[in-house]
């Protein structure tokens, strides 16, 4: 009854309120804020977390290191301090920051993602490394953010990565059509 009275007097009860979901990202405003807030924390150590991401990827999937010509011959034990690795990790973190910063601008977001896809498509990267990276990335976020990575935050990040991959894979497809 209280819910009905609240509705009649000018407001729906919190339990029935629905946030509008952005059709381009699939994120509600609350989910987008979770992602943006979490990323601010991760980005405080962009260099360290970028290196940690690649180290985790190469530990879980050692064959991917060979896909990076400049990193392929560096022993895993030395990779974290390699300036080549740090530079690439920084580039990826800057790209991720640009993606997160543009979640509210779907047109710009899709253009950026498509460009990333085209760049990786020219290198014949394929989709599987990205799909494998998703689990590594979400785990890294959980390790770095601890309790802030609630089940809702994990879902929001999953949606964010999925929307990234739609744009990236579209760019990869365009590049493969040009071949």
UniProtKB/TrEMBL annotation:
Domain Globin: 26-173
Keywords: Heme, Iron, Metal-binding, Oxygen transport, Transport
GO cellular component: extracellular region; hemoglobin complex
GO MF term list: heme binding; metal ion binding; oxygen binding; oxygen carrier activity
Pfam families: Globin
CDD domains, alphabetized: Mb-like
UniProt xrefs under InterPro entries: Erythrocruorin (IPR002336), Globin (IPR000971), Globin-like_sf (IPR009050), Globin/Proto (IPR012292), Mb-like_M (IPR044399)
Family membership noted in the UniProt record: Belongs to the globin family.
Name used for this protein in its record: Globin domain-containing protein
Native source species: Timema genevievae (Walking stick)
């Amino acid at each position: 009854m209280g819910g009905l009275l609240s509705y009649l007097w000018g407001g729906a009860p919190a339990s029935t309120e629905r946030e509008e979901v952005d059709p381009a990202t699939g994120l509600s405003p609350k989910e987008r804020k979770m992602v943006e807030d979490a990323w601010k924390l991760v980005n405080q150590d962009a260099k360290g977390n970028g290196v940690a991401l690649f180290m985790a990827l190469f530990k879980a999937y050692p064959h991917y290191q060979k896909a990076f010509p400049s990193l392929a011959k560096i022993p895993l034990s030395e990779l974290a301090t390699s300036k080549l690795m740090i530079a690439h990790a920084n580039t990826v973190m800057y790209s991720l920051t640009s993606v997160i910063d543009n979640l509210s601008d779907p047109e710009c977001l899709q253009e950026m993602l498509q460009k990333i896809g085209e760049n990786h498509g020219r290198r014949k990267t394929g989709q599987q490394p990205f799909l494998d990276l998703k689990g590594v990335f979400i785990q890294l976020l959980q390790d770095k953010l601890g309790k802030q990575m609630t089940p809702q935050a994990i879902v929001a990040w999953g949606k964010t990565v999925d929307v990234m991959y739609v744009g990236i894979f579209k760019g990869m497809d365009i590049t493969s059509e040009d071949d």
